[in-house]
């Protein structure tokens, strides 16, 4: 079979109609979601409600020498809110602990939470976050909120107060579904990418969120399955932390203890809060929160592979999303390339061109809205192939008990 025959076969109108539909759906929902995923109220609007509210900004730190000082100093620069920077040095060997100790000596708002050995069946990050929350609950009765973030995240001075304003329902309308406030709010930071390898996967965080989470339904129901968060920035109330419980028995079965073995707090945490009957929400924090997650392709691949399958949660969904992405986000590029190369153009080829245009339009809109590099837009078909590859790699690591991060192997975390 020559190239022209292959082109004609792939241009089957029903196949390409399905591909066009699978490409237009993310674009349509993405446009709707970007309207609903609104920025937080300005600092001036929230200051009267947030001033004096105590928030513990909790940073789990394992070998974060390059990041920890800049992260903590950005926390301490917060305005219109009473912050404490909690840091848990998780058995670092690179001098992270010494840097944190120096910062604590300089500013009493830096709290070094005592370290304990990692118990069996706990993921390291969840254990670190749990210990920081436990410390705050036990030692600071004025503490009303916890903000869990990562050492590679940087906060603008208005970030904490504006997020707290969203949680308190300041100046938010019914359209955004948060006028009554929420007990957990989260945002995806502005994701900074410095290499092509990072661009293939990191910007897809926004693509997946905007394309597949029905934000309107998220706000109209407490269904745990309709929730989402980003583990890089989760603000949760004291009562929600204590109310979110898991299925295991024991004194540590709340907060992060409700999903202690998980590597995906962005999925598990809002679900636990919703099961307690409390509301969760998302807002656009691009203006005030930023993060350089990984450096280079190797680190990016390993970082996504550790929990990509857990984020999906089932083999059935993995198979479906692989086929769906192949149909709507990859196949049209192949068909269009063959049509251009062979000169074989049918209605199917034009539908493939429409699908490619829909995908590029969405990626361009996302790049402009979330301040991503425009270079990642033409990388879209490669990115979607890499997304499927890393999800299947994550499944293999899960099934073979090899999922790990920073020298630790995780236990079974998915249901």
What do you see in this structure?
With 415 residues, the protein is α/β, with parallel strands linked by helices. The chain folds into two domains: 3-34 and 311-409, no CATH class; 43-295, Spore Coat Polysaccharide Biosynthesis Protein SpsA, Chain A (Alpha-Beta Complex). The chain is built from 17 helices and twelve strands. The chain has a seven-stranded mixed β-sheet, with helices on both faces. It has a three-stranded mixed β-sheet with strand order 5-10-7. Helix 5 links the parallel strand 2 and strand 3. The chain is globular and about 70 Å long. The protein starts with a helix and ends in a 6-residue tail after the last strand. Residues 171-179 and 411-415 have low confidence and may be disordered.
List its salient traits.
415 residues, 17 helices, Spore Coat Polysaccharide Biosynthesis Protein SpsA, Chain A, 50% helix, single chain
SSE topology sketch:
Elements: H1 3-10, H2 13-36, H3 43-50, E1 54-61, H4 68-76, E2 82-89, H5 96-106, E3 110-112, H6 124-139, E4 143-149, E5 153-155, H7 159-168, E6 184-186, E7 190-191, H8 196-199, H9 204-212, H10 215-220, E8 233-237, H11 238-243, H12 265-275, E9 280-282, E10 289-291, H13 297-305, H14 308-312, H15 315-342, H16 347-369, H17 380-399, E11 404-405, E12 408-409
Parallel strand pairs: 1-2, 1-4, 2-3, 6-9, 7-10
Antiparallel strand pairs: 4-8, 5-10, 6-8, 11-12
Helix pairs in contact: 1-15, 2-9, 2-15, 2-16, 3-7, 15-16, 15-17
